[in-house]
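Lab meeting, item 3. Inverse folding demo.
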């Protein structure tokens, strides 16, 4: 019996056992876990190296003046930054022709939206996340209220989706601005979108990264000490000094986090 067949049988009330691996002692289990951890740590380091390469990607100037509709009216691509330096734009499919319209957005895009972490943490790293689709704003606002989504969500009014590889499929485009000039820095779609949702996965695709001083970033990029900028989502404030107890805890955590010989975690 396959796992899928066993799962279907369980739904029907049949709880026959699925195929099981070896059942071992705690000592053998820990040994197996430590073996796998070596590979997991290598995977984490490789992911860090990829993010470092991503931060060195060339930039593409965005010359066209794209226009969107937002809850307050017409908005430019520059407006979507909301004054921050970095912008991540996810193209969600919510429009006529999409299964579930007009009551629901695309199932996959809705799962992506459900996974988005609290936006205050991204904002604290000078980064805005926005969703865009072709649904009118009245439908967008109704859907957001129903689903409990908080991200800014704009209506595409021109060729933005086609021009940035998301005319027929979902994807994340990443932008950075230098005053009023906007540049495209990265794009991820298909299975790459599966990993998105956490603050870390979003920051890792931006040109500035997590902006922590352990990262391999180009000279002059903004970086601060890990842990100390983390906060409760309702407590971020400019120039706010970290709590003394948290500094003590975070320094101990940082030491362990960066220890290449540590035997726990990935």
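The presenter then showed the designed sequence:
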């Amino acid at each position: 019996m396959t796992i899928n067949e066993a799962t279907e049988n369980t739904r029907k009330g049949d709880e026959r056992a699925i195929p099981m691996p070896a059942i071992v002692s705690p000592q053998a289990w820990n040994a197996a876990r430590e073996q796998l951890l070596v590979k997991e740590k290598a995977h984490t380091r490789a992911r860090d190296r990829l993010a470092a390469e991503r931060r060195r990607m060339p930039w593409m100037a965005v010359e066209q003046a794209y226009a969107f509709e937002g809850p307050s009216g017409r908005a430019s691509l520059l407006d979507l930054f909301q004054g921050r330096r970095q912008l991540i734009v996810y193209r969600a499919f919510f429009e006529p022709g999409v299964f579930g319209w007009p009551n629901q957005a695309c199932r996959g895009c809705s799962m992506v939206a459900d996974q988005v972490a609290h936006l205050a943490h991204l904002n604290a790293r000078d980064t805005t996340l926005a969703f865009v689709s072709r649904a009118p704003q009245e439908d967008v606002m109704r859907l957001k209220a129903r689903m409990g989504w908080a991200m800014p969500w704009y209506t595409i009014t021109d060729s933005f989706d086609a021009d940035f590889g998301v005319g027929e499929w979902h994807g994340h485009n990443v932008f950075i601005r230098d005053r009023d000039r906007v540049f495209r820095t990265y794009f991820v779609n298909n299975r790459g979108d599966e990993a998105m949702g956490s603050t870390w996965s979003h920051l890792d695709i931006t040109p500035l990264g997590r902006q922590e001083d352990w990262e391999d970033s180009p000279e002059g990029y903004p970086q601060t000490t890990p842990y100390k900028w983390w906060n409760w989502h309702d407590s971020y404030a400019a120039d706010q000094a970290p709590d003394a107890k948290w500094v003590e805890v975070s320094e101990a955590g940082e030491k362990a986090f960066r220890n290449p010989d540590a035997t726990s975690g990935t």
